[in-house]
Amino acid sequence: MTEPSGLSVTPEEGGALLVEFDRPEKRNALDEGLQGELLAVLQEAAVDRGVRGVILTGSGEAFSAGGDLSRFEKDWDPAEFRAQSHELTRLISAVERLEKPVVAAVNGLATGAGTQLALSCDLRIASENARFLFREGMIGLIPSHGGTSRLVKLVGLARARDIVLGGEDLDASEAFRHGLVTRVVPHGRLLDEARERLGHILRRAPQAYGLAKRLLHLSASVDLESGLFAESLAQSSLVGTEDHKEGVRATRERRAPLFEGR
Asked: What segment(s) does the record annotate as region Disordered (predicted)?
């Protein structure tokens, strides 16, 4: 996998891909170049059998400060702004739709689109140095790119209202209390913890994980009957896979299964 300029991309043992935002002087703000680079990495990871899961983190003191502030100093035509915003929404949705596990290792500041990227990951592990800022209202904007809808689905309407309308800044322990992150660890343990959690997930059959992930997201926006139908289709496609057969054999033989994603 080629390494883009705004990212550090490191293949790791077991099929993990460590993706680090590498603009510490800009608090890892997501300019158009970095957005395009990250989207390309995700698209390549989606079809690369050697990549089984992804860890997202930031260099320096920030996970990501979201959109570069200079972007908001331009005199935008509304239609042009919407078109560019759709590209960032596409990136964040690509994280959520990747049929492989994505773990956010939130090392420091996350705000704006940086927070939305973290919310789109399967798991969010926070360093004790992590902070989540919801200050869009201070520049006359709202949390976008799914920022309100994902937050409500994750923590519930009452807490989301408290966070967004109250303009709360959450440290790591408060983010955990609100259900925004999965766990909080000492800063020096962050990547080790992310690797351990990802390794635990990667013991599962990859196709089954990918479909379960998509179904869980789907369940939040469809009725029960539609959800049941989607589950039936997914299950019928999995029952014929080599991984399913291997899982049954391994269970009978009381050994760990060796899944190959087939």
From this structure: 240-262
